[in-house]
Design a protein that fits this description.
The protein is an alpha/beta fold. It has one domain (about 5-135): Response regulator (Rossmann fold, 3-Layer(aba) Sandwich). The chain has helices spanning about 15-25, 40-45, 65-75, 95-100, 115-125; strands at about 5-10, 30-35, 55-60, 85-90, 105-110, 135. Strand 1, helix 1 and strand 2 form a beta-alpha-beta unit. It starts with a strand and ends with a strand.
């Protein structure tokens, strides 16, 4: 089985570590690449400086380049038309979620409160092992 790769873009180092830990619990063989700087992440991805990941998770609220701008830039590149891109934020109002889904997000969610909730979320999205949590929008 091919090793899955997840790329997480988030300017909060604590959130990045929290997500890395939860992904490791889901599957310790999964490669988790992270970036705190959206502009660097976009460059790495679009210029082929790293392998195209199986999943891309992007925080919406970041300085300079927001998550929705990252989404638009990645979806504008044909290499990422089929890559699941998931956007998340501390708060995800339904109208924001719908706008992001229409713009090409595969899923949206509000950040869970616990690592166990992140694990359930990742199991649902990546491995389809569990029923999608209520806060996951498609």
């Amino acid at each position: 089985m091919k090793q899955k790769t997840v790329f997480v873009i988030d300017d909060d180092p604590d959130d990045l570590q929290f997500m890395r830990d939860a992904l490791n619990r889901v599957d310790s063989s999964m490669l988790c690449v992270t970036s705190s700087y959206p502009e660097d992440a976009i460059k790495l991805l679009t210029q082929g400086l790293i392998v195209i990941p199986d999943y891309i998770f992007i925080d919406i609220n970041m300085p300079k380049i927001t998550g929705d701008v990252c989404l638009h830039r990645l979806r504008a590149d044909s290499k990422f038309l089929k890559t699941p891109i998931i956007l998340y934020s501390t708060s995800m109002p339904k109208e924001v979620s719908e706008k992001l889904l229409q713009a090409g997000a595969s899923f949206t969610f509000s950040k869970p409160n616990t690592e166990n909730e992140y694990v359930a979320l990742f199991e649902s999205i990546i491995f389809k092992k569990t029923k999608p949590p209520q806060y996951l929008q498609r």
